[in-house]
Write a structure and sequence with these properties.
alpha/beta; 6-stranded mixed sheet; 250 residues; 3-stranded parallel sheet; 2-enoyl-CoA Hydratase, Chain A, domain 1
Amino acid sequence: MNNPYVKLIVENGVGYITFFHPNRNSMPSDILILLEKAILEAGNHEDVTVIVLKSGGDRTFCAGASFNEVVTIQDEKSGMQFFSGFANVINAMRKCPKLIIGRVQGKAVGGGVGLAAATDYCLATKHASIRLSELSIGIGPFVIEPAVSRKIGKMAMSEMTIDAESFFSHEYAKDKGLYAEVFETTEALDEAVKLLAEKLANYNPEALNEMKKIFWENTSHWDSLLLERAKISGKLVLSEFTKNTLKRFR
């Protein structure tokens, strides 16, 4: 199946949200909107106690923003609107009353790192290296920075941002706190995710909800902060440098 999708499946108290795009799970606007809606739906679903966020395919977790769409942006308003998609997804994850477990089976780039950082607990495979490539294309990881810095620290965020053309290993990601555990195979990852999610689904939902609030203390300003960051990205993406760079990657 090569058509993009976002789907929510509920099993044993766990809401499995899966997103997919044939271009390395890149994120165009429509997928970002659907992903936000799925998170909101799972958060309000009476049969869901815990959420698992995953992507389809077996090679790349998420390649970040869709370059094919970004290169078509013609004005600051549409640029801000596009990058607000990532802001809205991260804020939906932050405010969701259910714990979100990340399942990262492969590489995460740009916004994909932001999604992993916005989960409450993230498991990965040894193939799940990470990269923040935004500066190399003329913009920056502005929208995802608060989530990434919160999870791995400002210094590690700065290192990855500046070394924008390098992938950082799964060992680096685990050492910095992005991944809680790393597994040799996708099969082992899926087994561990299922075991953890179903175990948590049997815990007191009220206690899980209260802990979620504590995990995300002092982030209420993100509603406006991430949109301000989207405005910065929406302006920079119009530069000739970025336009010319993105055309080479299409």
